[in-house]
Amino acid sequence: MNRMPDRPDTWAWLAAWLEENWPALYAGILAVVIAALRVIYGGGTLRRMMIEAPLCGTLALAASHGLALIGIPSATAPFFGGVIGLLGVEGVRAAAQKFFIRKVEQP
C-alpha cells in the first residue's frame, strides 16, 4: 500500500485552502444533509433523496460564492445553505423566478 509522503508544504496549502473555502464547503454540506433529511421526513423515495440532496448542495455552493457580489459576507454562507436545503430545489427555483420576474417588470 502506498502511503502519502509527508510534505509539510502540501498540508499547509490544504489547510490554507480549507480555511479560505470553509464557509462555502460548510454551506454545501449543510444543504445536502438538510435536503436529505427533509426528503426522508416527507416520505420521499431514496431516488428523490439521491437526486435532490446533491442538487441542493451544489446550488448552495454556487450561491455561497455569489454572496460577495451582492455585499453579503461569506461567513453567512452556512445560513443560506441551510435555507436552500430546507426549501429544496423547487422552492429555490420558485423564489428565484418570482424575484427575477419582479425585477424585470420594474421600469
Task: Tell me the helix content.
Answer: over 70%
Number of domains: 1
The low-pLDDT segments are none
Main sheet summary: none
How would you sum up the global shape?
A: flat
Structural class: mainly alpha
Beta strand count: 0
Radius of gyration of CA atoms, rounded to a whole number: 17 Å
The helix count comes to 3
Cα end-to-end separation: 66 Å
Provide the β-strand percentage band.
under 5%
The H/E string reads: HHH
Mean pLDDT: 90
Question: What do you see in this structure?
Answer:
- It is a single chain.
- Helices cover 79% and strands 0% of the residues.
- It has helices at residues 8-41, 46-66, 77-105.
- It is flat and about 55 Å long.
Short structural description:
The chain has 107 residues and is mostly helical. It has three helices and no strands. The longest helix is centred in the first third of the chain and has 34 residues, at 8-41.
Topology:
Layout (H helix, E strand, L loop, with lengths): L7 H34 L4 H21 L10 H29 L2
Task: Name the features.
107 residues; mainly alpha; flat
